[in-house]
Design a protein that fits this description.
Blueprint: H1 3-15, H2 23-35, H3 40-50, H4 54-61, H5 71-78, H6 80-90, H7 94-111, H8 123-136
Helix pairs in contact: 1-7, 1-8, 2-6, 2-8, 3-4, 4-7, 5-7, 6-7
């Protein structure tokens, strides 16, 4: 199975039934939040380590099951600004936005890092764009 197929599968599973609104908008704006992190995906991973969430983020990058993250933990790492911006774009509360993003993030990072390697993470942008077309186009 290709990285794109794995990413498609993970995102579709994560989004299925988890967001009552426009799932295309959730995916699009969540991607923008992730892309806007200083240092890209590696910077995001480093932020999770710095916040004491090494066990969770390591599970997303390694093989095996992904440990969950709470909305509160996610807001602690990203800060309230990106989460509030996502909430405003989606027309939901910041708490709801954080909850939806927390449900999608582990799977996206997992599939963006085959064999625990973030070198392939540049494919995330391409994969998410194609995924939106495939799932919602």
């Amino acid at each position: 199975m290709s990285l794109f197929d794995s990413l498609s599968s993970a995102a579709a599973s994560a989004l299925s039934g988890s967001f009552g609104g426009d799932q295309t908008a959730l995916l699009q704006h969540a991607t923008q939040v992730l892309q806007g992190q200083p240092g890209g995906l590696q910077g995001l991973v480093d932020s999770f380590h710095a916040a004491g969430l090494s066990e969770q983020v390591s599970s997303w990058l390694g093989s095996g099951s992904n440990l969950p993250i709470t909305a509160e933990q996610l807001q602690g790492v990203l800060g309230s600004g990106p989460v509030a911006a996502l909430a405003e774009k989606l027309g939901i509360s910041p708490g709801e936005a954080a909850t939806h993003l927390a449900s999608v993030l582990p799977g996206l990072l997992d599939h963006a890092s085959p064999d625990g390697n973030l070198d392939a993470a540049h494919l995330l942008d391409e994969g998410l764009g194609a995924l939106k077309s495939r799932l919602f186009g």
